[in-house]
Amino acid sequence: MHMCVTCGRRLKDSKSIDRGYGPVCYKKHLKALSDKEFEKKQLTIDEVMEKWHVRL
Ligand SMILES: [Zn+2]
Asked: Whose C-alpha in 1, 8, 35, 53 is 20 to 30 A from the C-alpha of 28?
């Protein structure tokens, strides 16, 4: 059984299972990560998402 690493909820779809996060927690996780990238490289969130091939 696959669980969200953040909240421990069960993951139902294969995308979430691949990520290890539920959709909501994944967005939060990305936001936190992109904020870090932002500080380092001054990328926009769109550039970060594109770089990671994020499709929400
Ligand atoms: Zn979660």
From this structure: 1
Separation of 14 CA from ligand 1 center, angstroms? 14
* Average pLDDT, 10 consecutive residues per value, the chain (56 residues): 94 94 93 80 74 70
The answer as to whether 4 is a domain residue is no
Question: What's the domain range around 40?
Answer: 23-56
Helix (H, G, I), strand (E, B) or coil at 13: coil
Listed residues: CB within 5 A of ion ligand 1: 4, 6-7, 9, 22, 25
User: How many whole angstroms from 16 Cα to the centroid of ligand 1?
Assistant: 10
Query: Does the CA dihedral 24-30-36-42 come out positive or negative?
Result: negative
